[in-house]
Amino acid sequence: xxxxxxxxxxxxxxxxxxxxxxxxxxxxxxxxxxxxxxxxxxxxxxxxxxxxxxxxxxxxxxxxxxxxxxxxxxxxxxxxxxxxxxxxxxxxxxxxxxxxxxxxxxxxxxxxxxxxxxxxxxxxxxxxxxxxxxxxxxxxxxxxxxxxxxxxxxxxxxxxxxxxxxxxxxx
Length: 171
Fold this sequence. Notes:
Elements: E1 2-9, E2 14-15, E3 22-27, E4 32-38, E5 45-51, E6 62-70, E7 81-89, E8 103-106, E9 118-119, E10 123-125, E11 136-143, E12 156-167
Antiparallel strand pairs: 1-12, 2-5, 3-4, 4-12, 5-11, 6-9, 6-10, 6-12, 7-8, 7-11
């Protein structure tokens, strides 16, 4: 199979009505970056959906890399734990179908300036279906502040997620 990228910025995500991250703009001299601010003590989540291509290979997990920044932090020690889950909704599927268990992944410790842009290592996750091709997939991203590895004491500012999907062939 072949991998195709899907990049989704913060402004496309919808925050959960209860415990959702707040929307903000980081406006610098040169760039304007929309972000979702995830609290350091409250578990917050957001979702986005998109259509899967007809040639999507649902036998293979998706991978995700999160791009983020912080309000402040300590170089070399502060980390953030993110989680990602996905559910595919097909024709005649209940619209409030539960997400499968989320995959947690820890962002590496801030290795330079906290307010720089940081990228996580890739994490694989499964949308939990064997019939995803041509369907819609909902992606849920959250911060897991209760995890022992999440020690950033300020908002983690989500910028975007880079997904990779496998397709069976070009068509």
